[in-house]
Design brief:
The chain has 3 helices and 4 strands. With about 100 residues, the chain is an alpha+beta fold. It has one domain: Alpha-Beta Plaits (2-Layer Sandwich), CATH 3.30.70. Strand 2 and strand 3 form a beta hairpin. Helix 1 runs antiparallel to helix 3. The mean pLDDT is about 95.
């Protein structure tokens, strides 16, 4: 079953967040299991963001989470956030285009 992790966070350093994401992508090339990633800003609250990461399954998300580079990136992400991020783990029940 497809799986999505949505991370809600606030940050006054979105460029730092984006750089950390770019660094993680380079460091995990060929090993990460994340299939797609979206970064969105709340139009009504410009300091509030959502990162939406798509995986083939919950198990592949956990394998991705276990990568040392993912752990290091998560630490950088928290340091660049204005408050602790909120994680939502979502099993995809229906996906239509």
């Amino acid at each position: 079953m497809a799986f999505v992790q949505m991370i809600e966070f606030k940050s006054s350093d979105i460029e730092g967040i984006r750089k950390a994401g770019d660094d993680w992508e380079r460091a995990t090339e060929g090993r990460r299991t994340a299939r797609r990633q979206l970064l969105a800003r709340d139009r009504n609250d410009p300091g509030r963001y959502f990162m939406i990461v798509f995986f083939d399954s919950y198990e592949s998300a956990m394998a991705n989470s276990d990568l040392p580079e993912t752990q290091a990136s998560a630490e950088a992400f928290v340091a660049l956030s204005d408050r602790a991020p909120t994680f939502y783990d979502l099993d995809i029940l229906d996906d239509r285009s």
